[in-house]
Design a protein that fits this description.
mainly alpha
C-alpha cells in the first residue's frame, strides 16, 4: 500500500514520508477547526426593554381605563334618562360683569383724541419743499439738455413715427391709384349690364311684334274665309 503513495518532495522512505504528511495534514485540519474569526459574526445582544415596552403598556392600560370609566358614566346617565323623564342641565344665568370696563372706555377715548390731534397737526403743517418750483427747474434743465444735445430726445421714437407716416402715405397713394381703375371697371360693367338689358328688351319687343303680326295674319285669314262662305251662301240662295 505504501508503494502507491507518491510524495511531492524526494524522500528515502515513502512509509515515513506518508506518516509525516498525514500528521502535518491532521495538525493543519485541527488548527483550521480551532481557528477563531477576526470579525464577530454572532447575533447581536438582545435587550428586553426594546422588545417589551412596559411604559407603552402602562399608557395603553390607562387609556383603556379612562375609556371604560367614561363609558360607565355615560351608561349611568342613559339609564337615568330611561328611568326618568330627563331634565335640562345646560342653563347658565350668570351675567358677565367686567371690573375695568369704564377704565378701558376712558383709555380708548384718550387714544382717539390723541390720534385726532396728531392728524390735525399733520394736515395743518405746510410742506418745506415747493414741488411747483422743482417742476419749473426740471423743465428749464430739459430745455438746456435739448439745446446742448446732439440728437433730440427720443429720436428713435421720432424715427419710428416718421416711418409709420411714410408707410401710411404710400398705402394711401396706392389706394388712390387703384381707385380710378376700379371706377373704370365699374363703368364698363354698368355699360355691359345696360347693353344686356337693352338687348333683352329688344328681343322681347321683337317677339311681341312677331306675335302681333301672327295674330293679324290669322285675323285676316279668318275674315277672308268668312267672306268666301258668305259669297257661297249667297250664290246658293240665288240659284
Amino acid at each position: 500500500m505504501h508503494k502507491s503513495y507518491q510524495s511531492i518532495l524526494p524522500c528515502q522512505s515513502r512509509i515515513l514520508q506518508k506518516r509525516w504528511d498525514l500528521r502535518y495534514y491532521e495538525e493543519h485540519r485541527q488548527k483550521v477547526k480551532e481557528a477563531k474569526s477576526m470579525v464577530d459574526t454572532s447575533a447581536p445582544k438582545t435587550y428586553v426593554h426594546l422588545h417589551l415596552k412596559l411604559k407603552k403598556l402602562q399608557l395603553e392600560e390607562e387609556r383603556l381605563a379612562t375609556i371604560e370609566r367614561d363609558n360607565r358614566i355615560l351608561l349611568e346617565k342613559m339609564s337615568l334618562i330611561m328611568r326618568t323623564k330627563g331634565r335640562v342641565d345646560n342653563r347658565n344665568d350668570y351675567e358677565y360683569k367686567s371690573l375695568n370696563k369704564e377704565k378701558r372706555q376712558r383709555e380708548l377715548l384718550r387714544v382717539t383724541r390723541e390720534n385726532q390731534e396728531i392728524l390735525r397737526r399733520i394736515l395743518a403743517r405746510e410742506p418745506e419743499y415747493n414741488h411747483l418750483k422743482w417742476e419749473q427747474e426740471w423743465e428749464e434743465n430739459e430745455a438746456f439738455i435739448d439745446n446742448i444735445s446732439r440728437f433730440p430726445r427720443d429720436w428713435w421714437e421720432l424715427e419710428q413715427k416718421e416711418k409709420e407716416l411714410q408707410r401710411l402715405q404710400t398705402a394711401e397713394a396706392k389706394a388712390n391709384r387703384s381707385r380710378p381703375a376700379s371706377r373704370k371697371n365699374k363703368k364698363k360693367d354698368n355699360k355691359a349690364e345696360e347693353e344686356n338689358e337693352e338687348g333683352e328688351n329688344t328681343e322681347e319687343e321683337q317677339n311681341k311684334k312677331e306675335d302681333e303680326n301672327k295674330k293679324e295674319d290669322e285675323n285676316k285669314e279668318e275674315e277672308k274665309e268668312s267672306e268666301e262662305r258668305e259669297e257661297k251662301e249667297a250664290e246658293s240662295v240665288t240659284e
